[in-house]
Here is the input.
Amino acid sequence: MADKLDTSLSRRQLVGAGATLAATALASPAAKGNEGMAARELSDPTQKYPKPPFKQQSQPWPGLASQMEPRPDHGEQSYRGSGRLGGRKALITGGDSGMGRAAAIAFAREGADVAISYFPSEEPDAREVIALIEQDGRTALALPGDIRDEKFCAELVRRAVEGLGGLDIVVSNAARQQARESILDLSNEDFDATIKTNIYAPFWIIKAALPHLKPGSAIIGTTSEQAYDPSPELYDYAQTKAATMNYVKSLAKQLGPKGIRVNGVAPGPIWTPLQVSGGAPMDKLAKFGGQTPLGRPGQPAELASIYVQLAAADASYATGQVYGASGGAGQP
Here is the structure.
């Protein structure tokens, strides 16, 4: 019928509408945001960091990262955050150096407030970390002490909760590693110190923290490739890392129904003060990490994103997992 209203669009009109929509999309905030995303060049992981041979060096236990040669990279200059942990409150043991320091820096740059514990002699390294956290505008708490002491562990959690205004991330990272060629060289005192640092302390700290953790909170333990493939000179340390892997899996099952996730990170050879303060024999230190397919040890900065991922809400289905980072060697 000639008087019927024609509601159809011509081909020219459709093309014009599509062009208008495309122009609008390009002008949108999301599109504008993409304009600032510069392409990143690929970096060869085999050439990214120093390779052996390394200079022979030793420090008194527990050692300082600031006195190592070369100095470890914890992401001080390289880690860029994107707000993944905004408003979160984290306690990290061994947060002065190694993976704990890398996690502390990354967490702060992702928007979390952070408390770090460390042995009193590690104060110089800890001061650097506190300054970096504060530079990012986050609350930073320095909590020195000896986690081999049950009373200190309870006090540590209390002070973290009080200073941060709560707690929803616990990273049990601090560890003691002392190489002994033979079990006959391992004293009862040495064995006791390793067990208390690596097994008792996480037990005390997690137990004290649990009443403060709400659904959505995360617990992360640092285990090791030593849990799967122990070195002969790390008889006591390797046992504790196998125990860490198991408590992660056990606790994940226990706390899963409460909405609290528990995961672990299992590093391979990582360049930290553990190695130069008695954790590795001098002959092994010189070629440390050279046996991996990447031909070098890892740097703490290379594990930071793993800790962030396990703490972040978008990893909500990951619990009871152990994430490896060993340069292509070891397990998992």
In short: The radius of gyration is 24 Å. Residues 268 and 319 are 21 Å apart (CA to CA). The first strand starts at residue 89 and ends at 93.
